[in-house]
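Researcher: Go.
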Amino acid sequence: MKKNILILAAFFLLLPLSFVQTSCDKGVNDFLNSLKLSNEDIVAGLRKALDIAADDASVLGSKVDGFLKNKLIALAMPDDLKPVLQLIDLSKEVPLVGSMLSSGLKSVADDFVVSLNRAAETAAGKAAPVFKKAITGMTITDALGILQGGDTAATHYLREKTTEGLTVAFKPECENVINAVGVTSQYKKLADEYNDVMGNTAVALLASAAGLPNQLNADLPDYVTRKAIHGMYVLMRGEEKKIRDNPKNYASDIIQKVFGSAEAKVKKK
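Model: Structure:
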């Protein structure tokens, strides 16, 4: 008898929870059913948008000066090599030969920075397939969040989901590119010029007082990889916003249907 009473009591205690859960599920289902877009439409539209953004970003980044002349993503002198810039300034203070030493080092440093950007531009052309492969795992939950997210929600999603994997996949490409476009040889010229300037006794004294290293050391593949990937996300962010702002500018029917819908205009708070 007691056992039956306990079972009955448990039933009535759990009944509200079941009702709440059922109500929640019903609410989600009602919401999905109220949309004019099917789940398949939303996922297909978001995938297509990311495909287009990846293609366009790859084209923008891989063209000549795609990185170098874009202030948002241009590669500057790596932090490990900032002593070069300090040495350029310090060498100017040395009488007679200072201007010449500074000018020579700056010229080599400028060429080296150009080569870094050329490496990123070359790597950018290989990025689109890597990005596209990461898009295939998008779920309807992901897609709904992206659709009603901010102007760059899709790119943010991709960054969260793929940065680590992209780094692993992208770094070998950057290592190959670094050698192919001459970054390694430019780095050697930079190091040699740095050492030559440090060979001047007056400059060496100033450099020692400033705590500058005797030799340069930098992980160039790691630097180019990180900056190239960051640059691609920046470019994709811009392309995604273009799609959201003007879906009718794109020939794809699914892009126009999804991003031109009322659902795409309702942003999550």
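Model: The chain is about 75% helix and 0% strand.
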